[in-house]
Write a structure and sequence with these properties.
Blueprint (H helix, E strand, L loop, with lengths): L2 H7 L13 H4 L13 H9 L11 E4 L2 E4 L3 E2 L4 E3 L4 E3 L4 E2 L4 E2 L3 E3 L4 E2 L4 E2 L3 E3 L4 E4 L2 E3 L1 E3 L4 E4 L2 E3 L2 E2 L4 E2 L4 E2 L7 H6 L6 E3 L4 E3 L7 E3 L4 E2 L4 E2 L3 E3 L4 E2 L4 E2 L2 E3 L4 E2 L12
Parallel strand pairs: 5-8, 6-9, 7-10, 8-11, 9-12, 10-13, 11-14, 12-15, 13-16, 14-17, 15-18, 16-19, 17-22, 18-23, 19-24, 22-25, 23-26, 24-27, 25-28, 26-29
Antiparallel strand pairs: 1-2, 2-7, 3-6, 4-5, 20-21
């Protein structure tokens, strides 16, 4: 079986337990592992239709653009702001200066820390961490993902128990030509496979990280990087786009410190 068919059809290379909701709905009819990102806004709006919760006046600064968290708080019960299309589950902790734009679903018992920027079209499963100065847009974080410090997550899917080390980033926009910039268009991202480049049909695509993947501090993943379950990426590494099998360990050629005399 060639790499292309593995990526398109075998979601088990990346994620487990997709038969459970809400992931069953998110990945329904997905032929390619990145397909849920193309319809995430519609999926979130469908999920939000069945949500209920309280409104916390005085703690949340709301306007037509989104939500600004003013106080330290832990939610005793779920909050649903229908007009902003924002749902935040019970037990979630919110810290001051967080900005959240809908549509967004944040499940129970998450940590949304100081300075986080949730830009919309975001699903965060139970027990996730979106930390200090972390920005996320049009992305899915499955249960117990951690992006705790200075991370960027754009147009990406992170499996269960993924951990992003401090400063690691998932780039979603490839270099553009002068013609693209001046005429206002972007060529869709293509992913190099074993025998050919695969056309994703997406102008922006970050990374797909399988369950239990670990990114070291300051790792940078190029647009269109797909890493199977249990992958490891060492600190300070730049990972080219492409598909990496489950249990891959990506390291520099020489990872030993060099000792010299003063």
């Amino acid at each position: 079986m060639v790499y292309g068919k593995l990526i398109m059809k075998d979601l088990d290379l990346f994620f487990s337990n997709l038969h459970r909701e809400p992931y069953k709905a998110i990945f329904s009819d997905a032929d390619r592992v990145w397909d849920p990102l193309k319809k995430l806004d519609l999926v979130l709006k469908s999920v939000l239709q069945n949500k209920t919760g309280v409104n916390l006046d005085g703690c949340l600064d709301k306007n037509e653009k989104g939500l600004f968290i003013q106080k330290w708080m832990k939610l005793d019960q779920a909050v649903y702001l229908k007009e902003l299309e924002i749902f935040i589950g019970a037990g979630t902790r919110l810290e001051p200066s967080t900005v959240i734009k809908g549509p967004v679903v944040i499940a129970d018992n998450c940590d949304i820390r100081q300075g986080a920027y949730v830009r919309g079209n975001v699903f965060a499963g139970e027990g996730c961490v979106i930390g200090h100065s972390t920005e996320i847009k049009n992305s899915i974080l499955m249960d117990h993902c951690e992006a705790g410090h200075f991370n960027y997550i754009g147009d990406s899917i992170l499996g269960r128990y993924v951990n992003m080390g401090a400063g690691s980033r998932l780039a979603n926009l490839q270099f553009r030509s002068v013609d693209e910039k001046e005429k206002g268009f972007i060529h869709p991202i293509q992913i190099p496979l074993e025998t050919q480049d695969y056309k994703t049909g997406m102008e922006k695509l970050g990374a797909i990280l399988g369950d239990h993947t670990e990114l070291g501090c300051n790792a940078v993943l190029c647009p269109g990087t797909l890493i199977g379950k249990r992958g490891w990426v060492y600190p300070n590494l730049m990972v080219p786009k492409g598909y990496y099998r489950p249990d891959s360990v990506l390291t520099p050629k020489d990872r030993k410190p060099r000792i010299i005399e003063k």
